[in-house]
Amino acid sequence: MNVIRTVLIAAAVLGAPLATAQTGPKLKVGLMLPASGTYAALGTAIENGFKLYVAEHGGKLAGREIEFAQVDDESDPAKATDNVNKLIKRDSVDVLVGSVHSGVAMAMAKVARDTGTPLIVPNAGAAAVTGSMCAPNIFRSSFSNWQPGYAMGEVMALKGYKSVVTITWKYAAGDESVGGFKDAFEKGGGKVIKELSLAFPDVEFQALLTEIAAAKPDAVYTFFAGGGAVKFVKDYAAAGLKKSTPLYGAGFLTDGTLEAQGADAEGLLTTLHYADDLGTPRDNAFRLAYAKAYQIQPDVYAVQGYDAAQMLAAGLTAVKGDLSKKAEFNAAIEKAKIDSPRGAFTLSRSHNPVQDIYLRKVVGKQNKLVGLASRALADPGLGCRM
Ligand code: BEZ
After folding, report:
1. Residue 149 C-alpha to ligand 1 middle, in angstroms?
2. Lining residues, ligand 1, CB within 6 Å
3. What percentage of the chain's residues is helix, strand, coil (to nearest 5)?
4. Burial of 116 (0-12, 13-18, 19+ CB in 10 A)
5. Which of 32, 106, 252 to mutate to test the pocket of ligand 1 (most atoms within 8 A of CB)?
6. Mean pLDDT, 10 residues at a time, over the chain (386 residues)?
7. I want to staple 283 with a disulfide (CB 3.0 to 4.6 A). Which of 41, 49, 161, 278 is the partner?
């Protein structure tokens, strides 16, 4: 036996028990995100953000080495229960993180409630997740669909628009985004004169754009995201509507999409809990680290993934990595102040971020901060009984 081999074996034998004693067993995080379909890029950004935070902490949270099990959920609610059960039963994950699509997240929330597995939702804004399905072990690091919609309703009412047509995908995210918009816009004296929609993830917008032109509203409010948002913004401009009928939206319309939308997105105003030029030391440091790690600029989805990891860290730190202390773990996340690149936020009683919503304007390849649309906006959390 040569000397090097002897030393390696001795190190493995002596080192393995030592390492276990110092760090405890690995903690397995089940990442359930889309890696294909119209929301694929959103899934990648969330994964990048989550893994960046873990890497910044040496691959460990509260002393426990983090490992991952992953599934591509394809943003398909019909496959969601099977997919989440794969993570829980086949991969024995300790924690669930997902997903982007509201319908998928609702299926995850049901399984999380039934099994008691901690769930952190890093995007999907379905009201039910922090409403009728709320639970001590379910948290969201992102937003409710209602929040950016409500903020834009206030902005557009203040601008003096009286008649608006809405257009979106017909599922929880679109319906709730438009619902939030309508709540505030009609309270402010405006009227939604037509609500247009198409099935998710269809992108045949032509017939609906013709209806918008015929209705001649003062402006249009929309929820689209990912690949669908790219196509919608381009089709809206190509139909000549950008010049005649101002287009507004929840900020997903222009987040992570500007390279592909090019000049057709220039000048669009949207509302969201992030902007590309917040200029705070916290956000500057995050943006620098993200760009260094991935050679691409971060977007709102990257921030939400990063903050999901911060929330997990807050819970784990309070229980020194011992996830069997469920009540203490949950209470620590519930009480945490998350030092987010978007600005610090806390969670509502139903575990949804209470956060500032910014008005942003597309200038070149950035969603630039125009001002604060809504300060510390909380989702109503309707139907939540813990
Ligand atoms: C949702 O399904 O909740 C959603 C998807 C993409 C962006 C924002 C919300």
Report:
1. 12
2. 39, 100-102, 123-126, 145, 173, 225, 252
3. 45, 20, 30
4. exposed
5. 252
6. 32 34 79 98 98 98 97 98 98 98 98 98 98 98 98 98 98 98 98 98 98 98 98 98 98 98 98 98 98 98 99 98 97 98 98 98 98 97 92
7. 278
